[in-house]
Each structure stands twice: as C-alpha cells, then as structure tokens.
Amino acid sequence: MNRDDKQFLQGVGDRVRERRLALKLTQAELGKRAGLHRTFVGSVERGERNVALLSLRKLARVLRVPPAELLTEPDPGA
Amino acid sequence: MNRDDKQFLQGVGDRVRERRLALKLTQAELGKRAGLHRTFVGSVERGERNVALLSLRKLARVLRVPPAELLTEPDPGA
C-alpha cells in the first residue's frame, strides 16, 4: 500500500469516525449494528483496512449516510 | 450475498461500464491501465465482485471520476 492509498483509506476512516461520534456510538456499537467486528471498525478508522464495498455499505447504513459519502477522494479534475 | 447487495454491486458495475464505454475503452484496456486483470473488470461490471476500495480507486482514476461517483446507492433519507 503506497502513501497515497494510505491517505485515501485514512480519509475514509476519518469520515467513518466523524459520523460515528456524531451519532454517539462506540466502535463496538457500530460494529455490532453493522454486523462487523469491533476491531474491524477500529482498523477502518485507522486507515489500515482496504474495505470491500459491502462492508462499507453496512457501515454507511448504520451511520445513515450513502456509502459514497464515506469516500473522500477529491475530484481528480478539481 | 443477498439480492439487495447484488443490486448495489450491479449498480457499481453499470457505472463502471457506462464510463468505460464513454471513454471508448475495452475491458482489457481499462484493466491494463488500472493494473487489474481484464476478467476482474468483467466481474465488476456483472456485479459479481465485492470490490475493495483501492481497486475501485484504480478503476475510478482511469475512468477519470472520483471513486464516490461509481457508488450508486441512493441517499437512504431520500
């Protein structure tokens, strides 16, 4: 994983964390509701996890945002 | 994979295909430029692949769209 990829995944992790805290959920609660392990949520938030779309979708559903909103890549044309 | 998940992945596949055709690329050309196998692109477009974010990002970069744009989940609040 290169630095650019790591930065991208960290951006996703930051958005997950931001939404989770806004909903006052712990990592364990988010994991439980999404059907994912607590440590999985932690690794996503630390940008260590190359998340698959269906897991991203499960998180997004609990966080009540469209999955696209958790992806922070700026517009390549911007 | 339930029907809803399959529909979500098919939506992503449709967007990849739409952009690929708009850029007049074959699946082989998209795969080569993205550093992914041609058959991988085909399985994504058929909605058979639970794509990981970094692969989605590679496709998005070649297709010149932000990765978020390839995710078609409608806004849960809409």
Helix-residue proportion of chain A: 55-70%
Unreliable sequence segments of chain A: none
Mean pLDDT of chain A: 92
Radius of gyration of chain A, CA atoms, in whole angstroms = 12 Å
Name of the CATH first level of chain A: Mainly Alpha
For this entry, what is the oligomeric state of its chains? Answer: homodimer
CATH architecture call of chain A: Orthogonal Bundle
User: Under CATH, the topology of chain A is which?
Assistant: 434 Repressor (Amino-terminal Domain)
What is the CATH superfamily label of chain A?
A: lambda repressor-like DNA-binding domains
Our measurement of the CA-to-CA distance between the termini of chain A, rounded to an integer number of angstroms, reads: 25 Å
Interface with most residues? A-B, 26 and 26 residues
Beta-strand residue fraction of chain A: under 5%
User: What is the total number of structural domains of chain A?
Assistant: 1
Structural class of chain A: mainly alpha
Helices and strands of chain A, in order, run as HHHH
Question: Can you count the beta strands of chain A?
Answer: 0
Please tally the helical runs of chain A, counting DSSP H or I stretches of 4 or more residues. Answer: 4
Largest sheet of chain A: none
Bulk shape of chain A: globular
Can you describe this structure?
The structure is a homodimer of 78-residue chains. Chain A has helices spanning 3-22, 27-34, 38-45, 53-63. The first copy, chain A, contains 4 helices and no strands. Chain A starts with a helix and ends in a 15-residue tail after the last helix. Chain A is mostly helical. In chain A, helix 2 (27-34) packs across helix 3 (38-45) and helix 2 (27-34) crosses helix 4 (53-63). In chain A, 60% of the residues lie in helices and 0% in strands. Chain A has a single domain, classed as lambda repressor-like DNA-binding domains (434 Repressor (Amino-terminal Domain)), CATH 1.10.260.40. Chains A, B: Residues 16-70 form the HTH cro/C1-type domain. Chains A, B: This is Helix-turn-helix transcriptional regulator.
